[in-house]
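Readers outside the structure-tokenisation community will struggle with the description of the input data as it stands. Showing the layout once, in full, would remove most of the difficulty. For illustration, here is how one protein appears when written out as sequence plus structure tokens:
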Amino acid sequence: MEDKLKYGEKEILEAKLEPWENPYPDRNYYIDISFPEFTCLCPRSGYPDFATIKIKYIPDKYIVELKSLKLYLNQYRNKYISHEEATNKIYEDLYNLLKPRFLEVIGDWNPRGNVKTVIKVSSEDNKE
């Protein structure tokens, strides 16, 4: 089956988040990232869920390499995972990789069945 994968599918399958050295570790600055085409599957119905994932952080020693982040987030497209679990898992993976001074991940989920959900996880609320 892997022989028949398109090159993008193969990259997504093999994706790993990559840290890069922060070029200004002595300075506090914010990095804001928006991923407006996030998708995953509802674990109950199997219907697709769509969201904008917003990531805001103050790096310490490391920043996230953006292509690795894009491919990592695309790995969710075939996963059966709830809004809450997906948002918290993204937060957890980024926090464990980067150990940033501050991290916030927001899952801004598109309405489904006339219900809109926004999940926010922040290091201000979670004393790591």
